[in-house]
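[Discussion] Sanity-checking designs against the backbone

I'm trying to build intuition for which residues belong where. Below is a structure token string of 281 positions. I'd appreciate it if someone posts a full sequence so I can compare it with mine line by line.
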């Protein structure tokens, strides 16, 4: 192998094989060899792909504005794959669904039944936003197959109020300011409602002191409430209000509301003081 041949092999890249003899000569004359050549070819390819993608998008946009011809024939929408029929009782009314056997209860509630009160946070059992109550026990609906709930009773946040009367736990969350953005709140409230039943049953938790003395209708300490609610994450950090709300409903001991909506007079005073402060700046 002569020197020229060796130099050529060393400088060659996969992309070089795409070049014509003239293009290779031109790059050699311009002194674009080795790493510089590979960089140059890479940049050229990226620019070409960018231009191609831009044209593709422009065409797609243009096509999307065209109306379909009157005699156009459309392919039928794909049916449900692996379809299974499930009969559920959701918030008191029987619902017959046909879903993919792999559908999570969360998706069946939100996508099939339009019950969007139940929220999807992590979709992998980490945050508790999707908590609903199935046959009296709280479950993570993102980790529960809809098909496994055949014949069961499902309660979501939409099913807790009695007409215009909020569930006591919903009212307590408002009273104790147990939420800010509200995204985790449906899951928190469903979890808290099921927790009341667990306390009634005398179910133990990780911080229960004596597992041998199972006491029913136990008044939960704040530590117990925090532990039992630890699967429900609140990104806004509304935990003090959440614990206060659950404590009040669980113990039945009413505490004073620590906030109120400002009256017209209070708003007027606040605006007046704000005006004075602005004037002194
Ligand atoms: S969405 Fe189910 S646990 Fe987060
Ligand atoms: S209120 Fe915002 S995440 Fe809990």
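Best answer:
Here's mine. Compare freely.
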């Amino acid at each position: 192998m002569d020197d020229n041949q060796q130099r050529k092999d060393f400088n060659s890249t996969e992309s070089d094989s795409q070049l014509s003899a003239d293009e290779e000569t031109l790059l050699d004359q311009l002194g674009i060899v080795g790493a510089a050549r590979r960089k140059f070819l890479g940049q050229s390819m990226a620019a070409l792909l960018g231009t191609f993608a831009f044209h593709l998008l422009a065409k797609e946009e243009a096509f999307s504005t065209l109306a379909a011809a009157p005699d156009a024939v459309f392919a039928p929408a794909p049916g449900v794959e692996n379809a299974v029929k499930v009969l559920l009782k959701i918030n008191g009314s029987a619902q017959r669904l046909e879903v993919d056997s792999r559908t999570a209860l969360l998706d069946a509630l939100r996508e099939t039944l339009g019950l969007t009160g139940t929220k999807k946070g992590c979709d992998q059992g980490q945050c508790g936003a999707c908590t609903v109550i199935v046959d009296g026990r709280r479950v993570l609906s993102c980790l529960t197959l809809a098909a496994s709930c055949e014949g069961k009773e499902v309660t979501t946040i939409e099913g807790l109020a009695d007409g215009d009367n909020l569930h006591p736990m919903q009212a307590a969350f408002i009273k104790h300011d147990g939420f800010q953005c509200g995204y985790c709140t449906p899951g928190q409230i469903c979890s808290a409602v099921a927790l009341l039943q667990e306390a009634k049953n005398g179910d133990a938790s990780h911080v229960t002191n004596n597992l041998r003395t199972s006491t029913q209708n136990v008044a939960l300490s704040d530590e117990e409430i925090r532990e039992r609610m630890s699967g429900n994450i609140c990104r806004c950090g509304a935990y003090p209000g959440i614990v206060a709300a659950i404590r009040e409903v669980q113990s039945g001991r009413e505490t004073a509301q620590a906030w109120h909506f400002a009256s017209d007079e209070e708003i007027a005073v606040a605006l007046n003081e704000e005006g004075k402060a602005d004037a002194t700046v």
